[in-house]
């Protein structure tokens, strides 16, 4: 348990940030999941639409510190590569 007033404030702050971070993480995972489901279904158009939603989510998460920027870029790159393979 926090002993000082600053530690108590920090604990409150952490609790608030945890809720926000969890919501952001859920949004990103959901967006990526939609793209992957469309890819496994073989629906290129649906995958492209889902990717239009997922890419900004991933980049925003990287900018806000949820993901490392290289991780976000890698995920976008791999998903776009998989979508491109669907077109062949």
Overview of the structural elements:
The protein is mainly α and 88 residues long. Helix content is 86%, strand content 0%. It starts with a helix and ends with a helix.
Descriptors:
88 residues, mainly alpha, elongated, 3 helices
Please work out how many helical segments DSSP would assign.
3
Mean pLDDT: 95
List the secondary-structure elements in sequence, H or E. HHH
Poorly predicted runs: none
| Principal-axes shape call | elongated
Beta-strand residue fraction? under 5%
**Helical content (DSSP H or I, runs of 4+):** over 70%
| Alpha-beta classification | mainly alpha
**Major beta sheet, specifics?**
none
N/C terminus separation: 59 Å
Question: Over all CA atoms, what is the radius of gyration?
Answer: 17 Å
Number of strands: 0
Reconstruct the topology from this structure.
Layout: H1 5-41, H2 44-63, H3 69-87
Helix pairs in contact: 1-2, 1-3, 2-3
How would you sum up this structure in a few lines?
The protein has three helices and no strands. With 88 residues, the chain is mainly alpha-helical.
């Amino acid at each position: 348990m926090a002993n000082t007033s600053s530690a108590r404030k920090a604990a409150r702050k952490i609790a608030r940030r945890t809720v926000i971070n969890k919501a952001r993480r859920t949004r990103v995972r959901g967006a990526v999941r939609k793209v992957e489901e469309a890819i496994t279904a073989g629906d290129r158009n649906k995958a492209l639409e889902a990717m239009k939603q997922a890419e900004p989510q991933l980049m925003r998460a990287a900018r806000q510190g949820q993901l490392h920027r290289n991780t976000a870029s890698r995920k976008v790159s791999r998903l776009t590569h998989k979508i491109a393979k669907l077109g062949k």
